Amino acid sequence: MRFPKFRVGKTASGTSSTMATAYRGSLVKSYEKSRKNNPKWAFEEDTLRTVMNAIDPSEKRIVADIPVGTNRFYQFLDDDPEIKIVHCIDNSVDMLIESMMRTSSKFFYSRCDMIDEGTPIVSDTVISYRFLNLFDFNTIEKILANLCHSSRRNLIMTIRLSESHEESGSVFQNKIHIHSRARFDEALAANDFEPVWEKGYADEKPGEYFTLHARRNGH
Ligand SMILES: C[S@@+](CC[C@H](N)C(=O)[O-])C[C@H]1O[C@@H](n2cnc3c(N)ncnc32)[C@H](O)[C@@H]1O
Fold first, then answer.
1. Which residues line ligand 1 (CB under 6 A)?
2. Which of 4, 65, 201, 208 is such that its CA lies 20 to 30 A from the CA of 39?
3. What is the pLDDT of residue 6?
């Protein structure tokens, strides 16, 4: 498989190429090791299981993990016989190569910028973990539109939200943005999706971290 080269310089949002190039080299190699002992990692895995196991088998024949990162959900997705195809999508070549360490005949990999381009691949269910808080709200409006466009039915994501109407500037060392709950729900509705289930993760940090399952309206 051949990958195109990274574009250099600022994109329209000014953030996407910077963010993708941040996920390379040694950070990719240490990404999972330095995170998976944190209880939040287990919370994310548990909630993904809960939602995926509740989804009708007809709505998870084709699944996409966007951005796939290290392909952390590989075993769970591979073991589910109802899932026939998994699209692994990321904008970082190094992450894609790392994700390919975990593979079977139902896994397919593609490079894609989910901010400015989106993906032409349409799946029944899209998983998007640890992504939406990396960007400011204007950028996540674009990402959400692209994620919703690529899902026929379900979108399962993690997101840190606040009841305040103000979006916070980036906080924490890893530059996490906290988005307004109301604005986030509006952005989902603008793309014809609505939240149907959520579970919060208690920590000391500002806002509340959720796994959130949204469904396309009318389905
Ligand atoms: C914090 S990691 C999350 C990875 C995985 N979902 C997880 O839960 O571990 C963020 C991922 O977003 C990818 N990424 C950053 N900007 C992107 C963009 N514009 N389009 C697609 N992927 C992007 C990075 O390469 C990285 O793999």
1. 16, 19-20, 23, 67, 69, 72, 90-92, 95, 113-115, 129-131
2. 65
3. 32
pTM: 0.91
pLDDT in tens, 154-192: 999 999 999 887 777 788 777 889 999 999 999 999 999
Residue from 19, 43, 158, 159 to probe ligand 1 pocket by mutation (most atoms less than 8 Å from CB): 19
Ligand 1: atom nearest CA of 128 is 6
* pLDDT tens column, 150-163: 999 999 999 999 98
Residue ranges of domains in the chain, CATH in brackets: 16-216 (3.40.50.150)
Task: Encode pLDDT of 189-211 as tens digits.
Answer: 999 999 999 999 999 988 999 99
The residue whose CA has the least distance to atom 23 of ligand 1 is 91
Of 144, 158, 159, which Cα lies nearest the Cα of 193? 144
User: How much distance in Å is there from the Cα of 69 to the middle of ligand 1?
Assistant: 6
